[in-house]
Specification:
Blueprint: H1 21-45, E1 52-57, H2 62-71, E2 76-77, E3 80-82, E4 86-88, E5 91-93, E6 97-99, E7 104-108, H3 113-119, E8 125-128, H4 140-151, E9 170-173, E10 181-185, E11 195-202, E12 205-212, E13 216-218
Antiparallel strand pairs: 1-7, 1-8, 2-7, 3-6, 4-5, 9-10, 9-13, 10-11, 11-12
Amino acid sequence: MIMQRSTFTGSPIALQGNDRFADRMRRISDGLLDEGALLTANLRISGGKAPWFALRVWTGREKTVENSLDAMGVRSLVPMRKGPDLRRRGRVVEGQMMPVIHGYVLVQMMALSEYLAGLLGLEHVIDVLGGCDRPMRLSDKEVSRFNRLAHKGNFDWERPVDLVVRAGEPVWITAGPFCDRKATVVTPSKKGRGDVVVSIDLMGGEVPVTVPLALLKKL
């Protein structure tokens, strides 16, 4: 009978000090983001235009992630709109500001996978839309247009829209991180305002996204 050895040779690594693995990884991410932010800023100063990307984040944490990125010198943006008005005892309470598209933060960064991977180390960030190696890009022009339309109130919840959509109907997304993409309506809407859920074919899978009705048009 041949006996198998259950002993190992060698020395454990990275056990010195009080650093946790998460702390070491956070320092690596912070260093990559600092480097990426500096290169992106230098590109803007020299007249270049770095692309924008979309981060998928936990819903309700969009502004927290934006503030964290801003503090690190990374240019980011969460276009906002006015939410639904509340009606209480005959009074109308104006809606609070909310993201145009819940769960996404726009980030301008040099298109290098290691810098984009550094974004994943931020709290509340889930992933980069399209992946770090082949992310979905947005031009500076499109981001400016999207933000401008949001500021003008085009996507406000109460803004009337001459559009009725049915479940299963194909639609076209007209602005934002999913601009010029085909989608399928999941939740119908006959109200002519508010939000609808659509499904977008992305990287071989269906991604559900809640968007303003005003962001859609029929094919």
